């Protein structure tokens, strides 16, 4: 199961059942008959002369269970030796499915113009009304062997498109919609509020335009209810199935939890036979130790004519996941990634015994050493943590360690915070 660990995500191991033996049926059958006879005798189901005598001794010609066990073990050993000594002509090689091919890989360095935000601590607006945010967009695609693939750079967009928007699409959104127009699955990895929903809406619009069924799945009922309201307002012909509530189950677009979709696959629902697209929101739930198997089973059980849109902000090994999809479904799977973060992420310290928050890493990822020193000073004055009177025997740890003013990562900062027993807080 997909658990988020790239080392443990082994989806390329496959063997062919029945190709393990070099024996023919005629060679195996006598041995099977002998073992069945011995097993029957051991359990008292054989001939009368195989039972024990009243004195506990085995009559002449009977089978001792221990001897039978040893003979069965010898047979197994002989079988293994025969397998090792079999001629190459009689040995059958294990069959493996061909590995997917990763191609059409490219990365673009882009700059996005965004509105400046107000500092939440000072409530002061910056002098510039807008700012430039550099970011990267990357694309890869996993293909089955010998697939006739046309690079996305040569794709001709549909005119008119399945859905238009009152704004210009970002580069990663364009790449994802091009994949949908070509009826090829796509995994979109982007931060929260980056615009992944646009890709899902385009897949829904494409299906409705072709009078096909589409299902939107989410991990929790609350999110399903929210998406149902949004999509119903946008498209109209939308239904909801969460187990607690069922609304318009015959709609062309159905919003449901992943467990509901798996249940439909178990029952062989008529809806599944008409599916063209399935959208998996928050696909990183597949690594959940308890519920992840639901996503895995659902993807495996879906019919081969389905195409997929996978959305996630935190999937750790997107390319491996795409290769798995390509391998089990024998269809291309694109991976579109952007590191653009529209929601600023700021890191604060709230020292134990202190009276306020201290911004230590701003939305640009810059470390604020002056604020960090203020947090340490507040901790020392409050008499808590490692700098106060409660830790008289702190020894060499009585003074804060020096930190470089530049080139410090958030991970190192967190490690330092934990070492000093302060409390870290992230807000966005």
From TrEMBL:
Gene: MTR4
Biological-process GO terms, alphabetical: maturation of 5.8S rRNA
GO cellular component terms, A-Z: nucleus
The protein, known as: ATP-dependent RNA helicase mtr4
Pfam family, one: DEAD
Species, as recorded: Mortierella alpina
Regions of compositional bias (Basic and acidic residues) in chain numbering: 66-82
Keyword Hydrolase set for record: yes
Gene3D superfamilies cross-referenced by the UniProt entry: P-loop containing nucleotide triphosphate hydrolases
